[in-house]
Amino acid sequence: MSITAVSSVIALVLGVLVAGLRVSPVPPLRIFGTAWVTLLRNTPLTLLFLVSFFVVPEIFFPGMSPFLLGSLALGFYTSSFVCEAVRSGINTVPLGQAEAARSIGMTFSQTLRIVVLPQATRTVIPPLSSIFIALTKNSAIAGAFSVTELFGWQKLMSDRGYAIAPVFIWVALGYLVVTFAISGLFWLVERRMEVAR
């Protein structure tokens, strides 16, 4: 499940950055952020994988590993959902907080980083849990593109002659374990944030 871990980091970093662009006071940055979210959220994930594996290496980065291509496709796609979750969290912070920060001379990035995002985190945790569980399940698509992951392991075992039903059961159990672990991790983080409130 290393592709899940790598694409989760990509999605989280890009999602927070694009959310910052979407609430930016600079119109071109807001337009870029909106275009990013609109394009990626409305494009089928399989199509992003096809572009990532068959267009990107031909035009931009020949010889890039399938693992990295799959991680980028999955991370970029999920970043649009992370962005919207973070943006909705930012919108829950009272406007007066940002105005007070600006009145004492803080820049937009400082206001976002020091004042707004820490307060928005509490409301962002629950939707992020669902997003990263969906990312874990979406990683199964990478198996069709020669990326070794949990669902791709099923194909390998089937090719070696193992009975397909037990292999599918083990793969399903593997996904259950991973998704329950993610859910439990976010539950712990949510509880910790509640104590800090």
From TrEMBL:
Coiled coil regions, renumbered to chain: none
UniProt-listed Pfam families: BPD_transp_1
Keyword terms of this UniProt record: Amino-acid transport, Cell membrane, Membrane, Transmembrane, Transmembrane helix, Transport
Bilayer-spanning residue ranges: 43-61, 167-189
Gene3D superfamilies: MetI-like
Cellular localization per UniProt: Cell membrane
Its membrane topology: Multi-pass membrane protein
Record carries keyword Manganese: no
Alphabetized InterPro entries for the sequence: AA_ABC_transptr_permease_3TM, ArtM/GltK/GlnP/TcyL/YhdX-like, MetI-like, MetI-like_sf
Transport is among the record's keywords: yes
Domain ABC transmembrane type-1: 1-186
PANTHER family given in the database record: AMINO-ACID ABC TRANSPORTER PERMEASE PROTEIN YHDX-RELATED, MEMBRANE COMPONENT OF AMINO ACID ABC TRANSPORTER
Similarity comment: Belongs to the binding-protein-dependent transport system permease family. HisMQ subfamily.
Entry protein name: Amino acid ABC transporter permease
Source species of the chain: Streptomyces gelaticus
